[in-house]
Amino acid sequence: MERWDLVQSTSEAEDSSWIEDFADETLGESDANERFLGQALSPSTKARRDFRGSLRKLVSQHQDAPATEISRALGYLVAWPLGSAVRVGDVGSFTSDISFARLTSLSALGVAIPVEEAADGTLADMNYTTGDVSTAVTDQVVRLEFTSPGGVFFLASGLRSRRIDDLPGLSRQMLALVDAGQWQEDWTVVTEVMEAELVLFFVADEEGASVELLGGPRSLVPTSADGTPRLARNNGIRICYVAGPGTTPLFRAARVRRRLFSHVATFG
Predict the structure, then answer these.
(1) Half-sphere exposure of 190 (CA within 13 A, CB side)
(2) What is the per-residue pLDDT across 168-199, written as a single tens digit (0 to 9) for each?
(3) Closest CA to 189 of 111, 72, 241, 82
(4) Fewer C-beta within 10 Å: the chain N or C terminus?
């Protein structure tokens, strides 16, 4: 069968992956893509496609779950995937339940709102653990061991807040953009970011999973020198993330819904 023929003969061995490729390449709009495939694919192929889609969604939710847990526990959104650049005044939308994608900025939309450092200027730590994570420190080496699969260890150290304090003023300007037709319904604006000196994030994939770090933050190694620890070894870890200064792991945002200005602090 030639590749341009969009009708598959019932006498041919079923190999319709190319039809899905054709739809993905040619039909940019997802609804049109799915309508076309609903007509072009055989029932058995559609069933397999639906199964693969459900499996991908399940895997995605499994990977994203720790970020949702951290968000609800700490009261901040997690910049996901970790390492994503998020700045105060960024305007965008959530491409998935938890991944924020920047589209423009307040300044590009003509909105001028002062950004303030945290009033006290002090550095703070935020942490979250589940699944009975044990910590052992020997000779500047930090060992984290996880009792059960899915155990989470998250530490953001040396945090400093940058935020928009004048939320009523921001609300008025966002509503004015809505009235002028310059604000999309699904847009969200970043109103606060937490800049970190160090971020550690580990999720266990199996019982007895472990991580070893050379050096570490003073909250784990009181005698440790400042600086980003080095990952020495990991075993059975599904997510392994270590980052130094300049990372923004946590943020808050706001949106307009039915002409109401609301803050978004957590997922779910």
Answers:
(1) 32
(2) 899 999 999 998 999 988 899 999 999 999 99
(3) 111
(4) C
Q: Give the helix, strand, coil percentages of the chain, each rounded to 5.
A: 25, 35, 40
d(CA 264, CA 268): 10
For residues 114 and 112, give the distance between their C-alpha atoms in angstroms, rounded to a whole number.
7
pLDDT > 90 in the chain, percent: 39
pTM exceeding the 0.90 threshold for the entire prediction? no
Query: Residue with structure tokens 């990991």?
Result: 234
CA-atom Rg of the chain in angstroms: 23
C-alpha–C-alpha distance, residues 257 and 25, integer Å: 34
- Residue 158's closest CA among 80, 221, 248, 87? 248
Is residue 170 classed as helix, strand or coil in its secondary structure? Answer: helix
